[in-house]
Amino acid sequence: MKRIIAIVVLAMLTVITPLYAASAAKNLAYVDKNGQSYISVGVLKTYDGVKVAYTAAEKKLHITREDTALTLYLGSRNAYVNGKKVQSKAIPFSENGSTYVPLQFVSQHLGLKLSWGHNRSTLKITDGNVAHTLPVLSGTFISSQTKPVTSTRKTFKVGSRSFSAQVVTVSLLHPKVELDVVLAGNKAGKVEDLRSIAKRSKAVVAINGTFFDAYTSGAYKAPYGYLVSKGNILHKASGDNRTIFAYDNNSLAAMIPGLDFKSVYDAGHMEGALQAGPRLLTDGKVTLDVKKEGFKDPKILTGGGARSALGITKDHKLIMLTTGGATIPQLAEIMRQAGAYQAMNLDGGASSGLYYNGSYLTTPGRQISNAIVVKYK
Questions:
Q1: How far is it, in rounded angstroms, from Cα 117 to Cα 8?
Q2: Tell me, what's the pLDDT at 2?
């Protein structure tokens, strides 16, 4: 009986099977400490005609596309291209349930074109007329056991003033993190407590979102700006240029001009979006151009009040911050000091609110129209 079991186990190990990620790891490009770049086989499988199989007993990867056959081995530089032995500069490996192969090697032989983004924080891979952009992770992999979200209170000094702020930082590349944009009452024009929106959404973090018609006496309190959730447009905007926070189904986030919404949405990669503004930081520098974004209030840069803001770091973390008494220029400097590389303002005043792990860090002074939430998968 033991011999029969051993034979069955051996057969299971030697059979060639499709290779899938065993965890909910994000699709990304990885750059190690030696500057070698990799891509997961899960990403490769998304391209037309690419097939991946794995022989566990030999730790062998077999990648094919049309007339091209690549063979690689985990932990080895030995590789084969259509049966001819070659040496790869990088070594395939497995991490967090995903298998990574040398990027330059596979892209060259499979006909994929590579374009690195600014600061090499993103990678655009083009295959014919289809292009996908991936976040780039450098250094250490993010374990599913590490904490996805951290919260702290910080004091920032801007000029002669000090501002106390609540700061929640979210690791967007963490395999458990998921973003969403949620309407109050699940319908445009409704209002709801931020805490209620968070609990209803099973959110760990929630921050207030767009501007809205908070002072109308009518039941319908219109949100201002585009709102997108799960790829669906929840609310359309008038087409102004106010900044939009947008992200794809891989939690790769960006801030885009409002006038670019249609082209980005039509490309088919927008999972969620929320429009507010003005833009506070671009590539780590304060860049306020309220006139270009369509803001007309002459006091927008001089008036102080409660503020909410979003920031994106170079290493794909989302900063969700609230503070009090700050002008927009002061908020921009606060976000720069907080470590944001890109940043934008959200609705403020009585709308400003931040919820974390079951309670308020900043309590809003009124019900709100919509929120950005962070959930765990």
A1: 48
A2: 41
